[in-house]
Backbone:
């Protein structure tokens, strides 16, 4: 199987996971008996956990509003990953650039998270993000030099 197709399948799976988490948070935003802000809800999903952790640090909303905002972030992540997956499947350069950018953003968040608290899941996410970004960068450079000759 082609490396890009494997990455596309990985991105598609993460897109469905982000969409599912978006649905969960949207459902929680419509619940009447909400937990107070002192009882955090922790969902460990790799990079999504990092993103939510950083979002919760910067927003100071009621739990219902925060859950609704978080669900919107997950839906945007899901759509972005779906677009990346489709573009990578068809070997589009723009999708590679988008995947490299998102991989480096997540690598930055993972590095920051590792400075705060060590986790093997975070280390795995960091290594995977860097490997995917490096592979896609190598492919783009190789493709560009092949087009010049």
Residues:
């Amino acid at each position: 199987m082609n490396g890009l197709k494997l990455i596309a399948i990985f991105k598609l799976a993460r897109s469905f996971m982000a969409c599912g988490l978006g649905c969960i948070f949207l459902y929680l935003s419509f619940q009447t008996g909400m937990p107070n802000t002192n009882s955090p809800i922790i969902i460990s999903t790799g990079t999504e956990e990092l993103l939510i952790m950083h979002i919760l640090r910067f927003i100071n909303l009621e739990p219902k509003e925060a859950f609704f905002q978080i669900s919107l972030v997950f839906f945007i992540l899901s759509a972005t990953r779906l677009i990346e997956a489709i573009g990578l499947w068809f070997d589009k350069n723009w999708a590679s650039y988008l995947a490299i950018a998102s991989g480096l953003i997540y690598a930055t968040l993972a590095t920051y998270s590792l400075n705060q608290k060590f986790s093997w899941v975070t280390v795995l996410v960091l290594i995977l993000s860097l490997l995917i970004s490096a592979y896609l960068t190598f492919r783009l450079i190789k493709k560009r030099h092949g087009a010049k000759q």
About this structure: Residues 120-148 form the longest helix (29 residues). Residues 3-31+46-148 form one domain.
